Amino acid sequence: MFKYYFSCIALFIIFVVIGGMALATDTSEKASVVAVGDNLIHPVVYNDAQRQDGSFDFTPMYQHIKKDIQQPDLAFVNQESPLGGDDRPFSGFKQFNTPSRIAHDVVNTGFDIVNAANNHVLDQGDEGVHNNIQTWNHYKDKALFTGVFDSEKEAQGIHTITSKGIKVSVLSYTYGTNDMTSKYPYTVKTFDEQTIKHDVRKAKKESDIVMVSAHWGNENHLQPNKTQQKYAQLFADEGVDVVIGTHPHVIQPIEWVKSQTSDHKTLVAYSLGNFLNGQYGGNENNQLLGRINFDVVKTPKDAHVEHVTWTSMVNHYEQANPYNKNTRQNFCIYNLDDYNEQLAQKHGLRYDPQSEWNVHHLQDVTKQVIDGQFLNEKSM
């Protein structure tokens, strides 16, 4: 009899333990995300990418960070310079027109969220907008292209991408379009409180995670301005999960912004700075690039962002003629962790007497701007 009771008790304990383990099984879903800033293709960049037969190949410029873009489940980039059409002259600042080949190479690098809502989106007029959209439509099975629209229906819709069972909506806003105008009011959205509230509330009903691309801020300023902070708070109050900031062409801080109306908090990266670019008019900080990685997690109770990490990168190039900035060549992006003084001494900025171009300076700027809690171990 004793053995019988002992066996029953043992079976009961086993049942409780196994049942408890089953209940404790993690039912959450998780997707990893990476985001970078302004892919801004100046003439020196596309000239460097042009081959002898007249075609273009930008892939070598991304080769050293390609694995970092491809490894996460989702990857975001702001395509700053529009693809206005290969049938018109290619151009740079102030009215960009970028070879359409960049779309293929951006997707090939691993990007599957491409934003177009920025101050250069109307550089080639409404026809350029049409060409831009049509070019990216060739890759719609591989990437979500959003931020510029060819119909009222598209503009009012919530554009989403799904990974690992998590649906992410992407909303895009720009501070302006360099005084260029479209005859279609729906083409691109600028910052407007009522529009943002309407879009976010709709997106929250149709997706698990709400991501905002915010093209804002002052160029070459390492800190956000009051307008950025105002809208960051609005995004937090409305329940946005993450804000990807672009436009200043330099990096700016990351922070969690707490909602004033709930327990929600929003990850805000005020500026990821430039990505591939040929900018020359600012300073060396235009070539210090930002990248953030984070996870989006969906549980039975909620969906949220966690595990945020910042990595700085370098836009490297050389200069054949020390006295001619138009001879810049060999453009290539490196992780700052992998960039050394030997490479730094080859950079074209070493010919600029006003530039403080060395690895330690880039590391110092990173630590000055980015809170240590977000830096990877090599950046500390």
Structure description:
This is Putative polyglutamic acid capsule biosynthesis protein. InterPro entries: Capsule_synth_CapA (IPR019079), CW_Biosynth-Accessory (IPR052169), Metallo-depent_PP-like (IPR029052). Residues 32-279 form the Capsule synthesis protein CapA domain. This protein is an alpha/beta fold. The protein has one domain: 4-Layer Sandwich (Purple Acid Phosphatase, chain A, domain 2). 28% of the residues lie in helices and 26% in strands. The chain contains eleven helices and 14 strands. The chain has helices at 2-24, 43-49, 59-62, 66-70, 101-109, 125-137, 152-156, 193-206, 226-238, 341-344, 359-369; strands spanning 29-40, 74-79, 113-115, 144-146, 160-163, 166-174, 209-215, 242-246, 254-258, 265-269, 274-277, 288-298, 303-319, 328-335. The strands form two sheets. Strands 1, 2, 3, 4, 11, 12, 13 and 14 form an eight-stranded mixed β-sheet that branches. Helix 8 (193-206) runs parallel beside helix 9 (226-238). The radius of gyration is 23 Å and the shape is globular. The N and C termini lie far apart (66 Å). The relative contact order is 0.13.
